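Tutorial handout. Part one gives the primary structure; part two gives the three-dimensional structure as tokens.
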Amino acid sequence: MISRRGVLTALGGIAVAGGGYGAGAYGEALTQVDSRLHGQSSVFATTAGAMEYAVAGSGAPLMMIYGTGGGFDQGLLFASKLREKGFQIVAPSRFGYLRSTFPDDASPVHQADVLVELLDHLGLDRIPVAGGSAGALTAAEFALRHPDRCSHLILMVPAANLTGRDPVEFSALQRMAVNAVLGSDRWFWALSAFAQRQMIRTLLATDPALLDIVDDAEGRRAEVILKQLLPISRKVDGLRTDGFWAGTPSLTAYERITVPTLLLSCEDDLFGTAETARLLQSRISGSKLVIYPQGGHIWLGHDDDFAAETTGFVRGAA
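Part two.
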């Protein structure tokens, strides 16, 4: 499913080729990261500690919970088309990401409970909640535990272990390579710069051949999603926690979710979320399922479609 040889080859090549060029370009990349994040979010105190969040756009509010390796900025990126359709996006940084705390209990259940405090802080009553990839775990728990605060649930490429088998299985060598990348801003930047397509396949679980058939805007979106994983150093706890909860057999009582639910995925997602979405549809009564043939884990080529489905679902469901 994920190319071990490609990752290891890229690591070796970078060690040889990255020398002189790398120093200046890497420093510039970190400067761009600081510029992207500075002043774009707020922090408030919760019962679990500090929580970072951003609010963008105008219109009816919708909370977007990003996937592994993101932050509030990835939440805003995932929901950019929804902003264009007239939603105000509430984008938190989950436990262990960027400026949000990492409490002893960093489970999706605890995160869901603390997100209620965010709604209280913003003076919001009951809003739609969308979750992508590992963020779908928190979104589902929010809908299950707080249906009085969740009007609609949208699960996008949901990364959940429903069969007792981790959908992302790494060999020992793959794990070594991925740990090297996710343990260092410099290594991550180098691989993203010199082996971008391999990184899109490995970390974003999307066939890079799709870049050759989607329009320029979607190709840039894939590049931005990858670049926004920096700074890895400020996301390590969140990354490791997401890996644990996405790989652990799910304890979420999906069959008890009562709010209107939309499930979105792509058949060729290398993390196998299409099958997960089908299983979730069988467990969540009355849920709607939409699966596209291509798009991978970042629904490449279908950002407009995901936004249109979500908009129609939220505005059309009672």
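Part three, for discussion. Residues 1-20 have pLDDT under 50 and may be disordered. The radius of gyration is 19 Å.
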